[in-house]
Amino acid sequence: MDTWVRFNSQSQAKERLCRAAQYACTLLGYTLQKGGVGADLLTTVKQLESHMSLTRKLMRLGNSAEALEAAKRAVHLSDSVLRLCITVAHLNRAMYFACDNVLWAGKTGLLPKLDQNKWSQRSFRYYLFALILNLTRDAYEIGLLMEREARSCSSAKASLSSTPVALTPENGDLPAISSSSSGSGSGSASPSPPLLLPVVPSLPALSQRLRRQLRLLAAVLRSNPPLLLDLLKNACDVFIPLDRLGIYPTGNGFVGACGLASSVLSILTIFHPWLKLKP
């Protein structure tokens, strides 16, 4: 079992290194194109990027089955929101890898009549759905941790402010009893309660509340590096399918930078497993 885990982590590290090289070529090609270099060098960089992409597809031939196994494990999670997000995300990843395998067969000539553009769009759609679910899971966990942090802060303030004080007539802490309260005031009618109007928070109050929430968010992310890295990685990755599907075009330069950044973050989680978000 340990041998398989070690082999799997090594395969993931190699695939992530190829991914980082691929998006580094994308960023380099964009920079060279903007700089007006020769067409030969630009063609060489694009060919290198294509070779890296094909190598990655070869390395991911068995990832669809692994994603299905991960979905089976996620079904048994106790939290219903996490169970839904993680399970459906793994299922979308399995479909994305399956489409990627079909694309690899088309690029290598095993399926010469394959419509590669259609299958590429299909694979990016599954990839986008998986990333949206991953970001939803990150937002849900951040919300839970912020709520827990707010409760702990409020309970700490309450414990500090609840120190007992002895009330004595000498120090004037006891309220004075008026004679009118002991007289014949029992027959008087009690005043009607004041009319309560809805309170609209002012702009300074909203700004203060926003600053408090941002400080709470920063404290939560600072104390949870795996969640922070997963959020950054998914936020970088989501621009790749958005650009490839034409939903939010950003250009090859931005896509290359985001892909390179997310690849570096993924490599960090492989070499330092405690940085990987669980489950």
How would you describe the overall organization of this protein?
This protein has 279 residues and is an all-alpha fold. It has ten helices and no strands. Helix 8 packs antiparallel against helix 10. The chain is globular, with a radius of gyration of 29 Å.
What characteristics describe this protein?
279 residues, mainly alpha, globular
**Which structural category do the helix and sheet elements fall into?**
mainly alpha
Distance between the first and last residues' Cα: 19 Å
Q: Helix amount, in percent?
A: over 70%
Strand content: under 5%
Quaternary structure of the protein: single chain
Order of helices and strands: HHHHHHHHHH
The overall average pLDDT, rounded, is: 86
Gross geometry = globular
Q: Number of DSSP helices?
A: 10
The number of E-state strands comes to: 0
Low-confidence segments = 166-187
Give a quick account of the main beta sheet: strands, pairing sense, barrel closure: none
What's this entry about, in short?
With 279 residues, this protein is mainly α.
Describe the secondary-structure layout.
Layout: H1 2-35, H2 39-59, H3 63-74, H4 80-107, H5 116-161, H6 179-182, H7 203-222, H8 225-237, H9 239-244, H10 252-271
Helix pairs in contact: 1-2, 1-10, 3-4, 4-5, 5-7, 5-8, 8-10
